[in-house]
Design brief:
Elements (H helix, E strand, L loop, with lengths): L20 H11 L2 H20 L5 H8 L3 H29 L1 H19 L4 H29 L4 H29 L4 H6 L2 H17 L24 H30 L4 H27 L5 H20 L5 H25 L4 H19 L1 H13 L3 H21 L6
Helix pairs in contact: 2-6, 2-7, 2-9, 3-4, 4-5, 4-6, 4-10, 4-14, 4-15, 5-6, 5-9, 6-14, 7-11, 7-13, 10-11, 10-13, 10-14, 10-15, 10-16, 11-13, 12-13, 12-16, 13-14, 15-16
Length: 420
């Protein structure tokens, strides 16, 4: 016997609840507008790294204006990453309380505000804005995989490719345009950084109609989805920890590059403009790995060959930066880019593939991104501190090669054909 529409259970991946009848109807109305959903996802994803990538080519100039050391400079990129982890702690609760669409809209507004606060004329605002930026991006990071699992259950891997590619594309444009924008605004790095708040505002506007359509989803009547048997905590799952550690380690090596790649090149004699262009190319080429690897991963029972491929490429690229940073800059940027893009796409896909349902995907996403980004925040700060202590990039880059080896080990375990 079929159940009436009002009794159908539509699981909200972030809320982990059975929604009200109004929520069921709102969810169906939203899914009936796939183009609207897709545009919102793409525009939100474009903002998930742009605010960080725009800082990297300018970090030396920003630090010089405020008289910051290399270690203090590293906090400009490590503070947002730290709050990617801390912000992930509250994302699931906010999703339960207000619904994904409302939280994503709020995150984009917060991101725009954080970008503007970051350019105010004080060190406190510089770091305070970075804190807001990290928190906003955390909300986007955590809610997006569960939202995709919920709304595109049969195309989760391909949709992961779409949003990961959009995220990397946003970072590419921001990295390439930061120094030219600084010059266009009369040498004002503040205006260059503030420009990217417009991108967040555009994305927020795109989420307004989705909030209106989905407004009934906040009327939850029953807490907790009925499941057969006891619910296993992801925090007690060895497989969940393996996925989490791979997420964290691949984020660590990526954020070291986001923080320091242009500086590494300029410290070896390359101009700031050229270093920014190579960095942008590195971000651009990540799109190839980010699109292809998740699709391949979705067609495999075990993703171990892909783990070997992406970690091997990243390790090789870091070795290249140690041996011949300027003469081989374009080659290393390309090798690293494909490896980085493939790794982040694979890490996000593993969250979906290792989850048996949307609720588990949301829980695993929260765990992987909370712990993972707290771990990743160590990277930019440690690299800057070691560089300041040694006066050379050889030691910090060598340490990241060691991170690649550890990531290979945990990644091979996370890639097994199992479910959390």
């Amino acid at each position: 016997m079929s159940r009436p529409d009002s009794e159908l259970v539509v699981v909200d991946a972030e809320a982990d609840v059975q929604p009200s009848a109004e929520g069921v109807r709102a969810r169906r109305a939203l899914i009936a507008h796939p183009v609207l959903l897709l545009v919102g996802i793409v525009l939100a994803s474009v903002n998930m790294r742009a605010a960080l990538a725009s800082m990297s080519p300018l970090v030396t100039q920003v630090g010089a204006d405020f008289g910051l050391s290399q270690t203090a400079n590293s906090l400009l990129t490590s503070v947002p990453v730290l709050f990617l982890g801390l912000g992930a702690l509250v994302a699931p609760w906010l999703g339960r309380r207000f619904g994904s669409e409302v939280v994503l809209f709020g995150a984009l507004v917060l991101l725009a505000g954080g970008i503007l606060v970051r350019v105010l004329p004080s060190v406190g605002a510089l770091y305070g804005g970075s804190l807001l930026i990290g928190t906003a991006i955390a909300l986007l990071n955590v809610l997006m995989p569960g939202l995709i699992k919920r709304d595109f259950p049969d195309r989760a891997a391909s949709m992961t490719s779409v949003y990961t590619g959009a995220m990397i594309a946003g970072a590419t444009v921001a990295a390439a345009a930061s120094v030219p924008l600084e010059k266009a605004f009369g040498g004002s790095w503040q205006a260059s950084l503030a420009f990217w708040s417009l991108l967040a505002v555009v994305a927020a506007v795109a989420w307004v109609p989705q909030m209106i359509i989905a407004r009934g989803r906040t009327g939850h009547e029953v807490r907790g989805v009925a499941v057969a048997g006891p619910v296993k905590s992801v925090w007690r799952s060895a497989l969940a920890w393996q996925v989490t550690l791979f997420m964290g380690l691949q984020s660590l090596w990526s954020y070291v590059l986001i923080a320091w790649m242009p500086t590494i090149f300029s410290d070896h004699g390359m101009s700031r403009s050229s270093a920014g262009v190579v960095f942008a190319f590195n971000n651009l080429i990540q799109v190839a790995g980010a699109f292809v690897v998740p699709v391949l991963a979705g067609r495999m029972r075990s993703q171990r060959p892909l783990i070997v491929l992406v970690t091997g490429m990243v390790a090789a690229g870091y070795v290249g930066l140690i041996v011949a940073p300027v003469t081989g800059a374009w080659v290393w940027a390309a090798v690293l880019g494909v490896g980085q893009g493939g790794a982040v796409g694979l890490a996000l896909t593993l969250i979906v593939l290792r989850s048996g349902d949307a609720v588990t995907a949301a829980r695993l996403s929260g765990m992987a991104q909370t712990v993972g980004y707290l771990l990743a925040a160590v990277g930019p700060f440690a690299a800057g501190a070691v560089y300041q202590a040694t006066g050379s990039w050889t030691v910090p880059l060598s340490l990241v090669v060691g991170v690649c080896v550890v990531a290979l080990g945990v990644g091979l375990m996370a890639a097994r054909d199992q479910k959390v």
